[in-house]
Structure formats: C-alpha cells, structure tokens
Amino acid sequence: MLKGLYVMNSKFPAVYPEAIRQQIEELVQIYAPPMTREMLQERPELLQDLEVLICGWGAPVLSEAFLEAAPNLKAVFYGAGSIRSTVTEAFWEKGIPITSAYAANALPVADYTLSQILFLLKGGWHAALQVKKQRSYRIKKDFDQIPGTYGSTVGLVSLGMIGRRVCELLRPFDLKVIAYDPFVSEEAARSLNVELCSLEDLFRRADVVSLHTPWLEETVGMIRGEHFASMKPWASFLNTSRGAVVREEEMLDVLAERPDLFAVLDVTYPEPPAETSRIYSLPNVIVTPHIAGSINAECARMGSYMLEELRRYLAGEPLKWQITREKAAIMA
C-alpha cells in the first residue's frame, strides 16, 4: 500500500470529510495526522516516505527543496482548482503526475453564473436597489428597457470548462449565446449552440457579458474601458474569472458615466478591493466576496473527485483530470 499525507489549510475537513477520508484510507496508508504547510515545514522528516500527496488549498509549494526531501513522491492529488501557486519548474521536470479538482470547482461557478445572467436580464439588481432607495414599488419609466429573458443575447468571453458548462445550462432558455474564444473552432462552437464573434462585437451585441478568461500574462487588462463604453443600453457585465483580466479603473469610469449599465463582480484586483475603491460606492456595481466557486458542503465534491482519481491511479488507468505543463500554461 502506498504511503500518503494530507497537507492542506483549514478547509481540509470540508474538502475531505470523514466519509471520503475513510475511503481514501482504505487505498493509501496515511502515516501522520493531517498537516498544514507550516506544520510540515517543522517536520520535514515526514517527507522521506511520502509517495502520494493529497492536498488542496494551502498545499505546499512543490519546489526543488520539497522534492529533494520527498524522493519517493509518485503522484499529487490537488483537491481544489488552480495549481499555479503549488507547481514549479522543478516539479514539471520530475514528470510526477498531478491531478486537480478544477472540474468539480467549475460546477458551482457555472451555477452562480447562470443565476446572475437570468437575474441581470430581469433587471433584478436595478429593481431591488431602486425599491430600497424609493421605499416603494414605483419603478422609473426607463426600466421598461430592461431586456428580459426572451430572445436576449448572452455573450461569453472564453469557452473553457466553465464557459462550456454555462452554454449547456443556458440551452433550455430562449436566449442567443455568442462567444469570443480564439482557440475554439467553428465546429466546436456549433456543438455548443454558440456563435463565435470578436471581443468588440460581443460587447456591442450582448445584453449580458459573462467573463470566464483565465488570468494569464497575455490576458491581464484584456477587457478595457472602450469595451464597456460600447455596451448597449441597460446591458450588464458579470465577472467570475479574475479581476486582473479587467482594467477596473477604466470599467469604473464608464459605469460612473453610464448608470444604465450594471456590473456584478465576484472577483476583483486586488481582493478585496482597496477601502477607497469606487467599487463600494457606485450604485450600479454589486460585489460578492469570491463565492462563485465551491463553498461549504460544495467543497466535498472536490474531495470526491480526488478519491476517484486516486482509484484510477492505483488501477493503472489514465487520470481524468491530470494537468500537464502545457495545460497548466493556459489555465487559471
């Protein structure tokens, strides 16, 4: 039986609840109590026997020093989404397989996205805030320009795992879906019932723009003020991706001038926004504290994905969610 360690932050019991741990421990010998990264740094001798690292948020950095201390490491099971803060060049050079629960984390993000797209198309935030302000149900007459959910256009920026899942969730609704993704073929877009277009065209045409672009060096500041300025009256913007993809000050300039536009931001840059940020004061900006991804009981889905991956690994089967160096380069 391979020897393994749990190394994670305080989210460990949520991602790996007892029922999942019991099944893991039927497959792997866990030879020390669950550790945090800091606890492991105080007991580096534990790494000598490590063969299977079962981790998630707060995982150790897989540096050259870590790998030298863990010469028998054979596989890493990362029960969270992005592995960017964990992997290093030294790790990739070792050729050790790493698999992530990014697909499990994509599901609640897509659910959140669907809820906000439909709510924004109904003018939900406009109406709710106006009712509180006026203390009545009297709505300004220009509210009749709110698009609604019949025949409206939803624009998705990037069709990665989350974007594609959102496409599937939108299928039952009477909506047109357009998308910008230079890496997606026309054939793949047709299978998703999506029309591909330019980024500029998407912002001009969509009633709701939903951003799903990963934070990469090439995508920093990709969404500019001119994109927001081109949006049709009463359009909305939703960001569940990363704040750094948007030039936020330029966005806020446009939102200050265009009270008809609305933005729902589950991510910002930095997080949280500075106390002086206009994000807090503009009435047409709603901020949620990065809750679109897995929270509370949803986290156990990520642990269950890693349990299934562990079973595949031990059976000599291909890992379904393995991340290669090439794949990591284009992921969030």
Topology:
Layout: E1 3-7, H1 12-15, H2 18-24, E2 29-30, H3 37-42, E3 52-55, H4 64-69, E4 75-78, H5 89-94, E5 98-100, H6 102-121, H7 124-134, E6 153-157, H8 161-170, E7 176-180, H9 186-191, E8 195-196, H10 199-205, E9 208-211, H11 225-229, E10 236-239, H12 248-257, E11 262-265, E12 285-287, H13 299-314, H14 325-328
Parallel strand pairs: 1-2, 1-3, 3-4, 4-5, 6-7, 6-9, 7-8, 9-10, 10-11, 11-12
TL;DR of this structure?
This protein has 332 residues and is α/β, with parallel strands linked by helices.
Describe it.
- The chain has 332 residues and is of the alpha/beta class.
- The chain folds into two domains: 3-100 and 296-328, Rossmann fold (3-Layer(aba) Sandwich); 106-287, Rossmann fold.
- The chain contains 14 helices and twelve strands.
- The chain has helices at residues 12-15, 18-24, 37-42, 64-69, 89-94, 102-121, 124-134, 161-170, 186-191, 199-205, 225-229, 248-257, 299-314, 325-328; strands at 3-7, 29-30, 52-55, 75-78, 98-100, 153-157, 176-180, 195-196, 208-211, 236-239, 262-265, 285-287.
Count of DSSP E strands?
12
Give a quick account of the main beta sheet: strands, pairing sense, barrel closure.
7 strands, parallel
By CATH reckoning, the class of the largest domain would read Alpha Beta
So what's the overall shape? elongated
| pLDDT < 50 runs, ≥5 residues | none
Q: Total number of helical segments? A: 14
What strand line-up does the widest sheet have? 8-7-6-9-10-11-12
CATH superfamily label of the largest domain: NAD(P)-binding Rossmann-like Domain
Look at the structure and give the mean pLDDT.
96
The CATH topology of the largest domain is given as Rossmann fold
Structural class: alpha/beta
Rounded radius of gyration (Å):
22 Å
Helix percentage:
25-40%
